[in-house]
Amino acid sequence: MEEESELSIHEECGIFGIWDPAGDCARTVYYGLYALQHRGQEACGIAAINDRELSFHKDVGLVGEVFDAGRLDQLNGTMAVGHVRYATTGGNRRENAQPLTLKYVKGTLAVAHNGNLVNTQELRTAFEYRGAIFQTTTDSELIAYAIAQERLRCSCVEDAVCQAVKGLRGAYSLLVMSPQKLIAVRDPWGFRPLCMGRRGEAILFASESCALSAVGAELVREVEPGEIVVVENGEITSIRENCVNASSHMCIFEYIYFARPDSILCGQSVHMARRQAGRLLARSSPAEADVVIGVPDSGLDAAMGYAEESGIPYGIGLVKNRYVGRTFITPGQQSREQAVRIKLGALRSCVEGKRVVMIDDSIVRGTTSRQIVSLLREAGAAQVHMRVSSPPFLAPCHFGTDIPDREELIACRYSMEEIQTLIGADSLAFLRREDLHQMVPDATCGFCEGCFTGTYPIRF
Fold first, then answer.
1. CB 230, CB 236: distance < 8 Å
2. Does the annotation flag 360 for ligand binding?
3. 426: preceding bond cis by omega (within 30 degrees)
4. 397 is in an annotated binding site
5. Domains held by the chain: number
6. Residue 210 in domain
7. What is the per-residue pLDDT across 358-404, written as a single tens digit (0 to 9) for each?
8. pTM value > 0.90
């Protein structure tokens, strides 16, 4: 999205938190955030509690750029929460980095948020008429204010959280830290993932299970949609007052693109889901070809599945520069276009003179796909058949993924034949919408597919 008003910031982020009586929690969060770096590459932060005193550090940049050993030593404590952030143009400011921290009459709070509210303007206006002065342009600050306000009327912070979230509509996976408690919260629709783990006496929460594995913790379970989990001195309390929805609606795009392949979401391996998408594509959209390749990284697993199902050999046709971030979440169209050739190179020995099936996870505007097809042709590919391991995007996301308005979505502007011509492919096919659920046969949750259907779980 090239231009974005300050009040409609769409973001895809990662959160990580820990309670550990052994201390040194900030260092554990640091490693957890490293494992979640794929979810946000523009800003990060850690807040820690040491003997009820809150300390924090956050800034624009990658985890390894923002923190060093000395900084982590200053954040030592028995509780800590961290955040990696991605924001669209206009939202990448230092003050928007998280966790957000508050000092108020009842003490201190730190809040880390993954998701996007759909009633942001309504909440902001209400707070402003009560005299609130905002320091950021994020909806996360609204959540922090709502909790602090309710805390003035409630006897404990978890009751304040329970009351505050009743006024929120949209996606929010939250970690809230007070001087004595670590609280994990998931919205009643379960749009964004959040799981709980253990490492000895330590209790941990993370956006994805891969972050738990990275710090030697074991996945215990998902935080359920609407659930509030409270950790105090190692004791866990579950509040299910807001667990009112009959079924969850986790973003299906977590499996297609966002999550790391070694994560488990709702009981479903992300790697196996992507592999299954490739198999389904091979069945519904076969191609006569000599080699199957994937666009790194999230297209690789689907390419393996396509190769397995079709019998066409799998090859490494595109090489990724590991020091360049994801082009899908690079704000500004010009930046995306410039980044493709820096990010990817075609392996001539794999594709020269061959009919190539190229698997990618999605097509948004079409610019990146056109450039990758061009790279393969320059490397001598005789044919390029593009297969996409998701259905066409037909609508924007309102719950925390940077999928733009319909005017920018190529599938809303052109027919399938026109898209094929625009990207320069010899053939083009997408995963069928009816195959989405077959992609995740082991998942224990329902899904939001609004970006593919234009129908959302929430009215707004």
1. yes
2. yes
3. no
4. yes
5. 2
6. yes
7. 999 999 989 889 999 999 999 999 999 999 999 999 998 888 787 77
8. yes
